[in-house]
Amino acid sequence: MKPSYEDPIKSIYQSIRSGDYDTLSDALDLAYNSGGRSASEKSELVFGYSVLADAYGQDNPVDALQAHDRARQMYPGDKELLRSEIDFLKEFIDFNKGKLGKEDYDLIGKTINLIKLKVPESSTIIANRVCEPLIDEIYQSMQSSEANDVLNLVTGGMLYIIHGDLTVEEQVEKFSELITPILMEKLARDQKNKKKAKKIKEKIKPSNS
């Protein structure tokens, strides 16, 4: 079933009733990108994205996080919507315990900072209270974790989709601060691994008889 371009809100409810989450995702994106939403349309988008986030869950954490974030964007200062998004990240960490490396935790921490960027200044104190317990947990986990590339594509994807929904001005403001250190750290680690591999190769290189 294809979403209705004339009435994406109607398509949202039809796809939820039929359990067609591909159409639900398309209909939500149509409504999200249309702009100029009324209060009732915002509420319907929150409901639709919340259903979609639950459907994706930990099987598709990148798209689930985006659904949580887009629901929250309808009411950027809403404490419970922010809590739902942060709770999802906490569930992701618990679900992948033992698989996350230092860079994964760093990427999740940076994702939280981007999420907070959309919170109105009047709600900053509340946002800090909601986010700080998980940020503290991430910091502690980083101290006891080793470098690990297994989940970097997932945690990097989370950062990427949250960054993609920022305005151009917000992207320019935060890109260098958040993305450049990640790339520089990865480049340094790659160079270190190449040097280590070269030394190992030289050690096992047969001597001329």
Structure, explained:
With 209 residues, this protein is mostly helical. The protein has a domain at 58-179. Helix content is 77%, strand content 0%. The protein is built from nine helices and no strands.
Topology overview:
Blueprint: H1 8-18, H2 21-34, H3 39-56, H4 61-74, H5 79-95, H6 102-117, H7 124-143, H8 152-164, H9 168-204
Helix pairs in contact: 1-2, 1-3, 2-3, 3-4, 4-5, 4-8, 5-7, 6-7, 6-8, 6-9
Tags for this model:
single chain, 209 residues, mainly alpha, 9 helices, 0% strand
What's the count of strands?
0
Q: What is the N-to-C succession of helices and strands? A: HHHHHHHHH
| Helix share, percent | over 70%
Largest sheet: none
Q: Give the count of helical stretches.
A: 9
Distance between the termini: 72 Å
- Please mark out the parts with pLDDT under 50 across 5 or more consecutive residues, or reply none: none
- Mean of pLDDT: 83
Structural class: mainly alpha
Strand content: under 5%
Radius of gyration: 21 Å
- Given the C-alpha coordinates, what overall shape results? globular
Question: Would you summarize the structure shown here?
Answer:
The protein is mostly helical and 209 residues long.
